[in-house]
Specification:
This protein is mainly alpha-helical. It has two domains: 40 residues, no CATH class; 51 residues, no CATH class. The chain contains four helices and no strands. The longest helix has 22 residues.
Length: 92
């Protein structure tokens, strides 16, 4: 039987390979749509859900700080690459 990260054996759905899981989940989705019980977000519902998620993520200041730092580093690296590296910038 397949094991997960906490040392317990997976059974049933969790023990199946990813392709088999996706196949079964896809059948379930098609059946729900056929019955009319599947939920599809309207643009307004999706916007509201995204807003709520953004509010929750932005409460974590250290996470937001890490995101900003990563973006700044990426932008700086792109600018250095664009101008030919650090030596080229120092020579200006």
């Amino acid at each position: 039987m397949a094991s997960n990260t906490n040392g317990r054996s997976n059974r049933g759905f969790a023990a199946m390979d990813a392709v088999k899981q996706r196949e079964i989940a896809s059948k379930g989705g098609r059946a729900a749509h056929a019955q009319g019980t599947a939920h599809e977000f309207s643009p307004d519902e999706a916007r509201e859900a995204g807003r709520k998620g953004g509010q929750m993520v932005s409460k974590d200041r250290s996470h937001m700080s890490a995101i900003g730092r990563k973006g700044g580093e990426a932008r700086g690296a792109a600018r250095r690459h664009e101008s030919g590296g650090v030596a080229a910038m120092a020579g200006d």
